[in-house]
Amino acid sequence: MNMKTTHTPAKRLRHALAAALLACGTLAATGASWAAYNIWTNEYTFARADLQNAIATQFPRKLRYMEMFDVNLTNPRLSLNEKTNRLITTVDAEIDNKLLMNKPVTGTLSMSSALKYDPAARAVKLDAPAVEKVDIAGVPAQYAPQLNAIGNAAAEQVLKDYPVYTFKPEQLEMNGKRFEPGTITVLSDGVKVEIKPQ
Fold it and tell me: InterPro entries, from UniProt (predicted)?
């Protein structure tokens, strides 16, 4: 006796979900990749802790400004600003000029960066870095312009075009179609990157 298979709406939904999950397998992050893909919103998300780890590889850094100042940057801390859609990197800073100073001055330097996608490198990169705040103990207020100039130079050298995440080719392909990142949005606890068909 032949039993005719019936497909209820619930079964059809389960089949559709299974197919969708299988199809997005190539878009899901693999190996050492730490991006998470959401099949419902077509977005990759990056957790704040992972972004912090990516930026931390840039430090410690030693820089020279105007052939006069030695700048040491250490201990990066990342925060996220939803309102400005920028990442904030705060570091401990030591500034020394052996000709003008008896000893180095220390404090903190906060730098912000936007995010952009570089198609050629398949990478999400820091963009348009700028100093947000320089807080150096014991330095008179009239030296604020010079400190800001040092801060902007540090932001440009350390953060500009630095890739915080590089996509693998298989992460941007599904069912023979190619995808590319679109809008990048900074959240309170991470960053989301829209994925759209080419």
Answer: DUF1439
